[in-house]
Amino acid sequence: MQTTIGDVKNYLNQKITSMAWQRIQMRLLPEFNKRGIFLHAITDSMQIDRDLMAAINTAVNTLYNESLPSEFLN
Amino acid sequence: MSIKILRGEFYPDRNAYVAAGEPAIFHCHHYNSYLQAVLLDASSYIDGIETLLADSAQEIAHTQFKAFYGSNSLNEEERKKAVEDYFKFAGFGKIDLKGIDATGGVVETSSDHYGVAFKSKFGINKKPVSYFTCGYLAGAIEAIYDMELGSLEANQDLCIGKGDEISRFTIIRSNNRKNKLIASQQEGNYQLHSLIQPDTTKVDYTAIRQALTNMPLEGAENTGLIDAFGVLLTRHYANYYCNISYGFLDLFTTQMGIDQIEIAKELMTEAGHVCAFNTFGGIMQSNEWNAMIKPMLSSKEDWIHGITAVVNSFGWGFWEIQELTDEKIIMKITGGYEANAYLGRYKEKPSIPISFLASGGVAGLMNLVYVLDLPGRTPVTLDENLYREISNKPEFFKAKQLKCRALGDEFDLIEAVKG
Asked: Is the CB of residue B30 less than 8 Å from the CB of residue B37?
């Protein structure tokens, strides 16, 4: 089953820190936008493709020295 | 008589510290570093953010020291001393300008607030982080030598924030500047008001403000840092926060569109919340709080009044509680520094309410008292785990700005509601 925006958002804000998801969004905004995902219209059920998930993981690593769980990345 | 050092004074009728025309406010290293970090999050795709961070400081330092030297006749050495001394007084660190002349030079320091702050909050950074210090040095040195704003620029190679022993800044003539710098708006559109004592609490607002505005909070002699209440405090420039925040909004909306502005608003408000959690939380556990304020407190509502009274000594304008229950607060802010600065700088109204720090701060004080239950749990260690714990609770307070002076209202009004 493909990982959704809601899965990643909940994981980051609950396990990493408050507003971690928002910082990732800010950091990767062009990546979201080029997939047709715009923040004013974003929903938790939207799915995240493999490349975007890899970019999110890199940003999480850069900002928080953490990695997303493997089930999100496989 | 010539005054050789710059300090400024507190103006009770506007709840503001002003030094040579420039409003100064208290903020902690958590806010300083978090706000800069979230702005830099967009720097890979928005041009001009790093420049904005340095230029804003340069505009303010130049304006301030030009005003100071204009009313005080000082020689070159005395001017340099005033710049070094104010940097230390404000908690920005220690600098030595002896190697500087009108063509620039090199400044090295083993104590720089932004470098120390970033390292403390985020660990080792990959790039230098002291954009503020770059701008401060360039602007102040221009003023020392009666040069035009924008004549110099500063670059940083070594940085405490990226693990170097020292921070090093090279100041050079600016020959290829693309952007025009603008003098600081100084006090902007400030409001006169008076401190009102609420009749629902025994917390003595006037006594607390009187005591705190007279506390000797200034950088230590050896480090130039203000280590107080468990944080590194600064007597920072109100206009610096505002000009980097609103300048960022301009860059963001120009390049990414207005529709996605909510993310910027959320993160700048979060910076205020982080500030409240750490600074208000630290103050509410301090010796000063326990000795002076705690004896006045008999309920959680009193704790909210106590910290609101403290806020009225920060230079943030007048904070008055309009409504308070364990589920909601409405805070009226008169002469808030965010609106003062916005109205002093911009002709156009903003597209959204702009009191981000105040919004985060109001929610933050409710979360400390009602969600964390600081009155019942103190002493607690205010760390990332605790912050995550309270922010994930369903009763976590969130803020909304109901009125905004920059949008034409008479004052700012912030509501924070549970859940």
From this structure: no
Q: Tell me the pTM.
A: 0.96
DSSP code, position A41:
G
> What are the domain boundaries of chain B?
9-173, 205-219+259-417
Question: What pLDDT does residue B1 have?
Answer: 52
Q: Does B2 touch chain A (CB under 8 A)?
A: no
The CA distance from B247 to B106, in Å, is 29
| Rounded Cα–Cα distance for residues A39 and A29 (Å) | 8
| Residue B262 Cα to chain centre, angstroms | 22
Beta-bridged to residue B28, according to DSSP, are B233
* A18·B123 Cβ contact <8 A: no
Determine the number of helices (DSSP H) and then strands (DSSP E) in chain A: 5, 0
Percent of chain A at pLDDT exceeding 90: 82
- Residue pLDDT, tens place only, B354-400: 999 999 999 999 999 999 999 999 999 999 899 999 999 999 999 99
- CATH number assigned to the domain covering B9-173: 3.30.1380.20
Task: Kindly provide the ipTM of the predicted complex, given to two decimals.
Answer: 0.93
Q: For residue B270, which residues of chain A lie inside 8 Å, CB to CB? A: 18-19, 22
Instruction: Determine, for residues A29 and B384 on separate chains, whether the beta-carbon distance falls below 8 Å.
Output: no
Range B205-219+259-417: architecture per CATH: 2-Layer Sandwich (3.30)
Closest CA to B245 of B84, B356, B118: B356
Q: What is the mean pLDDT of residues B167-185?
A: 95
The closest CB to that of A26, out of B38, B123, B391, belongs to B38
Contacts for B11 with CB less than 8 Å, ≥ 6 apart:
B17, B18
Contact B119, B161 (CB under 8 A): yes
Which residues are B401's β-sheet partners? Answer: B414
Pairwise CA distance, residues B362 & B353, whole Å: 15
Which residue intervals of B153-260 are DSSP H helices? 205-213, 238-256
Among A13, A23, A39, select the one facing B260 at the smallest CB separation.
A39
Mean pLDDT of B313-318: 98
Contact A27 B42 (CB under 8 A): yes
Task: Let me know: does B343 contact B189? Beta carbons within 8 Å.
Answer: yes
Is there a common fold for B9-173 and B205-219+259-417? yes
Domain spans in chain A, listed from the N-terminal domain onward: 5-73
